[in-house]
Amino acid sequence: MSIDPAALADLDTFTIEVPSWAYGNSGTRFKVFAQPGVPRDPFEKLADAAQVNALTGAAPRVSLHIPWDLVDDFAKLSAYAADLGLQLGAINSNLFQDDDYMLGSLTHPEKRVRDKAIAHHVQCIDVMRSTGSTDLKLWLPDGLNYPGQDSIRGRQDRLADSLQQIYAQLDAEHRLLIEYKFFEPAFYTMDIPDWGTSLLHCLALGPQAQVVLDTGHHAPGTNIEFIVAQLLRQNRLGAFDFNSRFYADDDLIVGAADPFQLFRILFEIVVQDAQKPASGVNFMLDQCHNIEPKIQGQIRSVLNVQEALAKALLVDRSELRAAQERGDVLGANGVLMDAYNTDVREALADRREAAGLPRDPIAAYRASGYQEKINAERVGGTQAGWGA
Amino acid sequence: MSIDPAALADLDTFTIEVPSWAYGNSGTRFKVFAQPGVPRDPFEKLADAAQVNALTGAAPRVSLHIPWDLVDDFAKLSAYAADLGLQLGAINSNLFQDDDYMLGSLTHPEKRVRDKAIAHHVQCIDVMRSTGSTDLKLWLPDGLNYPGQDSIRGRQDRLADSLQQIYAQLDAEHRLLIEYKFFEPAFYTMDIPDWGTSLLHCLALGPQAQVVLDTGHHAPGTNIEFIVAQLLRQNRLGAFDFNSRFYADDDLIVGAADPFQLFRILFEIVVQDAQKPASGVNFMLDQCHNIEPKIQGQIRSVLNVQEALAKALLVDRSELRAAQERGDVLGANGVLMDAYNTDVREALADRREAAGLPRDPIAAYRASGYQEKINAERVGGTQAGWGA
Amino acid sequence: MSIDPAALADLDTFTIEVPSWAYGNSGTRFKVFAQPGVPRDPFEKLADAAQVNALTGAAPRVSLHIPWDLVDDFAKLSAYAADLGLQLGAINSNLFQDDDYMLGSLTHPEKRVRDKAIAHHVQCIDVMRSTGSTDLKLWLPDGLNYPGQDSIRGRQDRLADSLQQIYAQLDAEHRLLIEYKFFEPAFYTMDIPDWGTSLLHCLALGPQAQVVLDTGHHAPGTNIEFIVAQLLRQNRLGAFDFNSRFYADDDLIVGAADPFQLFRILFEIVVQDAQKPASGVNFMLDQCHNIEPKIQGQIRSVLNVQEALAKALLVDRSELRAAQERGDVLGANGVLMDAYNTDVREALADRREAAGLPRDPIAAYRASGYQEKINAERVGGTQAGWGA
Amino acid sequence: MSIDPAALADLDTFTIEVPSWAYGNSGTRFKVFAQPGVPRDPFEKLADAAQVNALTGAAPRVSLHIPWDLVDDFAKLSAYAADLGLQLGAINSNLFQDDDYMLGSLTHPEKRVRDKAIAHHVQCIDVMRSTGSTDLKLWLPDGLNYPGQDSIRGRQDRLADSLQQIYAQLDAEHRLLIEYKFFEPAFYTMDIPDWGTSLLHCLALGPQAQVVLDTGHHAPGTNIEFIVAQLLRQNRLGAFDFNSRFYADDDLIVGAADPFQLFRILFEIVVQDAQKPASGVNFMLDQCHNIEPKIQGQIRSVLNVQEALAKALLVDRSELRAAQERGDVLGANGVLMDAYNTDVREALADRREAAGLPRDPIAAYRASGYQEKINAERVGGTQAGWGA
Lengths: 388, 388, 388, 388
What we know:
Four copies of one chain form a homotetramer. Chain A is globular, with a radius of gyration of 21 Å. In chain A, 43% of the residues lie in helices and 11% in strands. Chain A is of the alpha/beta class. In chain A, helix 7 (259-271) crosses helix 8. Chain A has one domain: Divalent-metal-dependent TIM barrel enzymes (TIM Barrel), CATH 3.20.20. Chain A has helices spanning 42-56, 74-83, 111-131, 152-167, 195-205, 224-233, 259-271, 294-314, 317-325, 329-341, 345-354, 361-368, 370-377, and strands spanning 17-19, 61-65, 87-92, 135-139, 143-144, 175-179, 189-190, 209-214, 237-242, 282-285. An eight-stranded parallel β-sheet of chain A has the order 1-2-3-4-6-8-9-10. Chains in contact: A-B, A-C, A-D, B-C, B-D, C-D. The interface between A and B is large, with 56 and 56 residues.
């Protein structure tokens, strides 16, 4: 299949937001393996993220996580970002590390704890005002480990109330992005376990509330692209947290576990034109580079999403529609597979070269000496991590 | 734990609807093993269902499946049911056995096929008018086996349109009950794969549309009682299809695979008072007695649901709430487990005896000679089955 | 990545065995949709299989299923196969369609039933002697639907005894290939649910017993290539049943659901040189073309396996080993992905052309008029199917 | 069902081994919530474990974990245990917290790292000689996160070699217990992902090697009691790690998620008489009391196993066999369910009372003041945990 460059034009404006925490240490409950060169503060995280953007040209925004990325002066952080060619992106709240949250945060039986969790979001909204961020991302880790531990119904009611209080604080240009997750850290039920629950809360809140789809947060076998299509149909797909998984929320590099699934997800995006900035869908990464180098891991992730999008853009949609309409099962599937089986790497390298970027960003990074430099410089201090 | 008979009072009005097709043969794609005594027509199915009701006192309604249960004269069938102490219940449509439906029914790319599927529901509504049934139950087997085979988004749009046309035909006292299913018979994606999709279509249709929760139609690990709580919170839980499973949609006897899960489901029912007839929730069975005798299988199912409900009613909810409010994880779980671990069988036998029913319905059935009678009488003709 | 033709040389001798039953009708428990042109007898099945081989040059053997493919004169069937350029391959026994097998066959509590199932295998071995087949393939559908239904331990003991009696009947050049399956048709436990159980029985029997790995017969999330590597390490991987799945034993076209997984499986094959005929691994298809045309489905399957093998052969194994040895996680993964991301379709088309085969076997089949011919000719009679 | 006390006699000699680490803090990768009163050293852990044994009479042994429980003088620790009425049990090695193990331990590409991991086991064997422990328990966290990261086959070979070196160090009365795990901390493949792999290594090593079955370490839907039956049939079930799960390796209290499954597991134990000490099966707990109080969590666990065993012992096995032999599916299942549905709690309380133990160990613990005492006393120092 020869590649028509025009077919890939939407890649010009397609961007991916990287998470500040991807550059810090992460691990499993068994061990966090420290890596050399890991940032000690948000400024160093931005410096690393700037490498990813400089080499790929496609990752101009960085999500922050509060309190991990709290700084005294957010204006200064924003200015530093701008100097690096970056923007500060979504503000992620944290409801899982305060001792008060052991049995819940926004759903906790005690009003005092719920109020604290709500206040934390008010703080995050203040950060947004300082940074110019428009997305408040909320992942609710609340849930139950044992049947009977608390009332499933009661927690939904409390959650609705807490969310309403947060939503009321938003400015007109703000969005509240609500994530769902199948399990972990709670092992009997999560309070927002699925897209249906997330969407119901968004619908109750209003048009500024949207769903976040983390690709690792589903039951085994779930057809994720169906959910993408459904949320787009409802105009409520606010953002992705991209990663990949073989088992649970493995948080591997997006596209590493099932590249065909990633392609199918991006094809549903293309079907509803959501790859264009006007869609408002924020394509974010959320991954844990537990054993692989982090900056390279981020670059690989950006490339994987670009390759999947390129393939999705190459699908001959009029041929596809024709085959679908004549009930040609194998023909229609064949049109999709033709695009998937196409090797787009050279075409993407050509595009990068034309844009003054390295043809092979991974090789360029390896050759740049940046990693050796930070390994040498970032000695002492406390490496960033989740603080678990 | 001693059992206060008053705690079980709601069992007096709690009924279970049995499916006509449970008395016919069923099997897997590998083999349908015929059983002796299986009914040859809807009248014989009703006769068998009447045994279940006579021995348990709790199964007074029988769901019909169209076309399997088509008869020339539904008034006559209703009268026969009444003579047996039964009512005709939900009317189930069939969208999976017409050759035209190989690639879909209500979602099919061709308008001709969609119109046919819509017309089938009009026919079912006519049956409802003849039988006095108020529930039209729609399970959509439509879906795709291969990525690209058809447009996921396009099928949602067609589905919405088809459902709207069906909904428009309902009488004021009718309900449209829309079921969802994770997979099978489609193996890439179903067109209504989850409760969220079913609910969205119900919300778009109006208040007479409600969700059916089949306990076997979820991804592995799904917390079903959470969905029960959520749908009740939305006032959209129309009915259950009870059965049980270890793997997929195994359609085993309800409570056989995970009795604790059944208890948890019924506890969420009790939490929102949905065990009372006023809730409108129709508690139906939908099972396949592939290798076990069918009438006994149905009796066992009714008993299992009753036992689970009894245990759910025994939960000391004020103790539970107190433990939940004080954050006593093990105490709260313990309150629930106390009820679950209670042996309610004697208490239920006492209730049956007081109502003039046999203490042990299974033993009574085995001793009744009914099975021997139908084995001897039902010779010749074509045994009822799915007609797959 | 440019493709060195020499790297693909093993494709010359790599063959895939097709199942006779793939050309007949199949379906789910809900419906078997009949297709035009479907064979009515084993001779017509062979004629269809010959198309697949003629167009791909890689499918010279056809598995038979007894009793579906019973004929009066197997010498005549073999001669017919030879005329078509085919050989008869593995003989598959059937333990799931006799009424006596409702509660088991080789594991049944009654000796009479077990003896019948053993005798069926003696019959199959006789067929092997007539056809020159060397592989007796045994898939055990036995299992339990309900806890307590029979003794798990007792059934293992009976199974071991039954298998021993079958094994004793083999000729020196015969192999007994024992398949495992996670679930279906039994829904509580299968009697051979996993590779460990299959292997233990093989080890107890002797060197002529080998394991069959059906790619659809595993729990969700199972790493299949690990099992491939492990069985090869034990010299006990006798054969594959290739197909693909999103959920359960979906029996879709191999490579359709997860082409990356198929590549990984074939890479483990290549690692242990099992793609060469000397390995004795029989690469078979076992699929159900429920809604897609069957001959095209088989051609697509052969091509998918060839493409996956081609990519696996392209892995730069010395680069890979070097990256692995230096602990370069992303580098090593990158070497594998480079091969996977390569578009091998033109290279394979070149090879086919050089061998006098059509570059595009699917297009060639569609253009050949064969399907129209059989649609017209095969009218009347009973279409082949599973006879469920 | 009335309970014949004689049926429960095997409970007299049935003991459960508790893990030292259950008394320390644990959590998820998101957060370890500290609890008051948590031990600071192995002596305090033993003191807590002694409470569990004192109140249940059934938990006389404590597993140690090296290096978490390293002390200068194991003779002193053993003596302290004896004073508390306890014995030191299995010695658990740790292969997941040394920085060298990021890419593997016994399977690592570098010999230096493998040698270190082997030497750690020699150290553990030395501890066994000091404590009189006979079980060396090895859980291998090794595995891969990315396809291609290392050779699956090569790692099996290295593992076999490493295990052989460890096995060679065992004394005659020692056992090497090898655990398997489906996933986590590795997310592409574990090096011992399933019972088959664990058993193959045990068979290669010799009779002193046995399999450990952790109830949380399986793929979704796996029938665990089948594995129990199979391993007992091979005389290779060395030990259990009991816990429970809804999703992954949730490490909840055993019996909390699926009490019916726990009963079925113990029934397979009873079928092969493995509840008797002579079987050599070591019934251990391995759980994480992340949000519930730890000592109560352990007591609850011991009671849950006892209740499940009591029910398993109550199964009328001659009735069961009779029903199985006559092919009475529902009758046989009914015999099993009769025992499961029996409320054994009073009978077990009676037995405890007769043995001078509290009828309700949880209530007795709550009333004892022990928790308040340790909460007050254990101030300062570093609470025990996993050190992740």
